[in-house]
Each structure stands twice: as structure tokens, then as C-alpha cells.
Design brief:
Helix content is 49%, strand content 9%. It has 348 residues and is an alpha+beta fold. The longest helix is centred in the middle third of the chain and has 19 residues. The protein is globular.
């Protein structure tokens, strides 16, 4: 199942690639993308190719902030037709929920979840790959773009408590400070990717909102074609990516989050040729390798993030999936989890 996303995701790619000494045309060809694709932001391209392009660009240039550098120049207008609807949402919370609702018109490879906890809101983001692949650059690009959207709507009123990453910090935080200058703190090696803000921030009124224009934009968006066929399998994988580190990746929780009962969800997955347990295992494999790449994550913490309360259960599962216990695998592969993952078939 190939997920297609707007070519607009690569806006500014050639410029950033040249800035760090790369040949953007050659790298685009390497991952199977034509340079002409970038001329039309509404063309659909493979999300897997985009994720690979960003990781290869960072690896070849030695620039760990490649994705975030691309996000620096993003404007609300880069959301295409969606920008009209977002501009006229009454509050930031409405804009975020609209982004989730219309993700099929933006980037179905990015999952977003709003988690309210009293006076605080956690906005979680994950890049959902079609097959095992490193995604640090795509994650920072997605989070940076979402952050800039919030900033465009609220301006100086947008002051989240923290921006959070599950990967390690780069040696130089200059680009991160430039992007997230209004944030109280940046946290790396965490449990999730996203940001934490006050619930009051989501209720801040958008001074540019116009309900009449919002209704007009909504009717227009409803008339646009959908690039990816509706898929329960894709929706469930996206939910598991978000819910697994939260300890909520059960079929009951996922079904509730999708507004379905368990029986209906099981039937839809069956029609898509998948089972919940298969999808859960696939996502576990993907996230396990992402977490293993970060040496700051202890094996015990990785076990917890993958839903294992007993480290021994995690060790047995990991050895069955990857051929050796996690401690031994880490010694043997070190920081090469990304290259291992690219050549690794999915579990059946």
C-alpha cells in the first residue's frame, strides 16, 4: 500500500540541499522522484520516497537538521487549498482538529493526536511509514511545519511549554532555537514527538477568522478528489503509531478513537486483508528500530514504549523479530539501525 502525499512537502528542498553542498537533482533521481515534480505542489508523490530523500540528504551532507531547515521557510499558503479553511478557523484548537480531519488533502503519512490533560494539551505527531524506514528528518519537518502553522494563526500569543522529540539532540541546536524560539524548553530523548501547550492556547481566538469564508472553503474542499483510497488498515496503523507509546494500543482503544465498535473495525480490517495483531506487530517493529537508534533510550524504557511491562517479554519478542536479543543487537549494529531497516523485509 503506497501512501501518496502532496509534492508541496518538498517545498524548499532544492534550496536547502544546495545550501549544505548537495546536488538536489541527483538525490531526487536516486529515490525515483523527478525534479519536475516540484514545480506543481499539488502533484502526489510517494511518501516513502520523500522520507528516504530527506534521510539520504541528511546522511550525505552530515546535516542533522536538514528537515527542520526545510520547515523554516514554510508559510500557511503551502497548505494549498487547505490554507483558506485553516485561516478562517475560530481558534487554534479548531485549526488543529481541521488539520486532522482533512489530512487526506495534506499528508496522510503524518499522524496527529490531541491529548487533553487538565489545563495542558499534548499535541503528538508521528510519521507513519509504509515500510521500515528512518524518519528523523521527516519527523522534524512535520513538527516544524505544524509549529509554524500555529504561529501563523496566533503570532506572539503562541508560546507552548515545550517541543518534544523522541530522538537525540543534534550537536548544534542553533537551527532548533531559531525555529522554536518562543518555546520555554526543548526536550529530546522523550516518549513522543510533538509539543505541550496550555489548553487556553487552543481556545485563543483567531483574529482572521470568518465563519462565512470557512463554510465556503469547507464546501470547496469536500469537492476535491482524494489521492489515497479510504483504508481502515492505514487508519489503524496511524492510530497504533500514536497510541502505542501512550500504552493505549488496544483494539478497543483504537476502535473508540476511530468512532467504531470493535466488531466493525475487525470487519473492515478483514476486508483490507489484515488483522489488528499483525498491524500492531508491524508498528512495534518500526518503532523498535527508531528507539534502538537512539542510544539514550534504555532497553527497559524501549520495552515500556512498545507496550511490554516485563523486560523479559520484550527481549523474547525482539529476538524472534530480529534474530538476537536487544542488547546483543545494539552491540552488533550500533547506530546502523537505519541501514539495517532499509534492507529488512516486513514480518509476515
Amino acid at each position: 500500500m503506497t501512501t501518496l502525499i502532496r509534492a508541496a512537502v518538498l517545498t524548499s528542498y532544492p534550496n536547502v540541499a544546495c545550501q549544505v553542498g548537495l546536488n538536489p537533482r541527483a538525490l531526487l533521481r536516486r529515490v525515483g522522484l523527478a525534479e519536475a515534480t516540484l514545480a506543481d505542489p499539488d502533484l502526489r508523490v510517494s511518501s516513502a520516497a520523500v522520507v528516504e530523500l530527506l534521510e539520504e540528504s541528511a546522511l550525505e551532507s552530515g546535516c542533522l537538521t536538514f528537515g527542520l531547515r526545510m520547515a523554516e521557510t514554510r508559510q500557511l499558503s503551502d497548505f494549498g487549498a487547505m490554507s483558506l479553511l485553516l485561516t478562517h478557523q475560530s481558534t487554534l484548537g479548531d485549526a488543529l482538529r481541521t488539520t486532522i480531519e482533512y489530512r487526506h488533502l495534506l499528508n496522510e503519512a503524518v499522524a496527529i493526536h490531541l491529548e487533553e490533560a487538565g489545563d495542558t494539551v499534548i499535541v503528538r505527531t508521528e510519521v507513519v511509514t509504509d515500510s521500515p524506514a528512518p524518519a528523523r528528518q521527516a519527523t522534524e519537518l512535520a513538527l516544524g511545519v505544524l509549529f509554524r502553522m500555529c504561529n501563523a494563526l496566533l503570532g506572539s500569543h503562541w508560546r507552548p511549554y515545550s517541543v518534544n522529540f523522541s530522538h537525540a539532540a543534534p550537536p548544534d541546536l542553533q537551527v532548533h532555537r531559531r525555529m522554536f524560539g518562543t518555546v520555554a524548553k526543548m526536550e529530546f530523548n522523550g516518549d513522543f514527538n510533538g509539543f505541550v501547550c496550555s489548553a487556553a492556547d487552543l481556545q485563543q481566538k483567531n483574529p482572521t477568522a470568518d465563519p462565512v469564508m470557512a463554510r465556503y472553503a469547507e464546501r470547496f474542499l469536500e469537492s476535491l478528489p482524494v489521492a489515497n483510497e479510504m483504508s481502515a488498515v492505514r487508519d489503524v496503523r496511524r492510530a497504533i503509531y500514536l497510541f502505542l507509546p501512550m500504552g493505549r494500543a488496544t483494539i478497543e482503544q483504537v476502535a473508540q478513537g476511530m468512532g467504531l465498535n470493535v466488531r466493525t473495525l475487525q470487519r473492515q480490517l478483514d476486508e483490507g486483508g489484515a488483522t489488528f495483531s499483525e498491524l500492531l506487530n508491524e508498528v512495534r517493529r518500526d518503532l523498535a528500530l527508531r528507539y534502538m537508534e537512539n542510544e539514550n533510550h534504555s532497553l527497559g524504557r524501549i520495552a515500556e514504549l512498545l507496550g511490554y511491562s516485563m523486560p523479559s517479554s520484550f527481549t523474547r519478542w525482539f529476538a524472534a523479530q530480529f534474530g538476537s536479543p536487544p542488547a546483543q543487537w545494539r552491540v552488533e549494529h550500533g547506530g546502523r539501525a537505519g541501514s539495517v531497516r532499509r534492507n529488512m523485509p516486513r514480518a509476515g
